[in-house]
Amino acid sequence: MQGSKLYVGNLSYSTTRETLEKVFSNHGTVKDVKLIEGKGFGFVEMSSPSEAESASNALNNTQLDGRSIKVNEAQPPKPRDNNRSGGGGGYRGGNSRGY
């Protein structure tokens, strides 16, 4: 594992930052926990890649708050495409009826 940041998915909406920190701290030092409210996932940053790998191996597919959680190395966000085509605003031209 190259990084120390983990993606944690399939979380119960009742799971808290404190719960994640407690569970992951059994596998090393937790530097940061970000829980994405209402989405069922979050990120846990461990103090080293080896601790992240240990936590991932130990916790992936285990039960937490009644759900089987998924733990993987976090991937950098994909770049957003700001040049989306279709729909929305702007002047469409043509068919001026003199209103």
Structural commentary:
The structure is a single chain. With 99 residues, the protein is of the alpha+beta class. It has a domain at 5-73: RRM (RNA recognition motif) domain (Alpha-Beta Plaits), CATH 3.30.70. Helices cover 20% and strands 26% of the residues. It has two helices and six strands. The strands form two sheets. A four-stranded antiparallel sheet has the order 2-3-1-6, covered by helices on one side. Strands 4-5 form a two-stranded antiparallel sheet. The protein is globular, with a radius of gyration of 21 Å. The protein starts with a strand and ends in a 26-residue tail after the last strand.
**Broad CATH class of the domain at 5-73:** Alpha Beta
Shape: globular
Number of helical segments with 4 or more residues: 2
Strand content: 25-35%
CATH topology of the domain at 5-73: Alpha-Beta Plaits
Q: Nearest-angstrom radius of gyration?
A: 21 Å
Question: What is the residue-averaged pLDDT?
Answer: 87
Major β-sheet strand ordering:
2-3-1-6
Write out the CATH superfamily name of the domain at 5-73.
RRM (RNA recognition motif) domain
What is the straight-line distance between the termini? 64 Å
Q: Considering DSSP H and I runs of 4 or more, what fraction of the residues is helical?
A: 10-25%
Biggest β-sheet: count, sense, barrel? 4 strands, antiparallel
Q: Could you list the spans in which at least 5 consecutive residues all have pLDDT below 50? A: none
Number of strand elements? 6
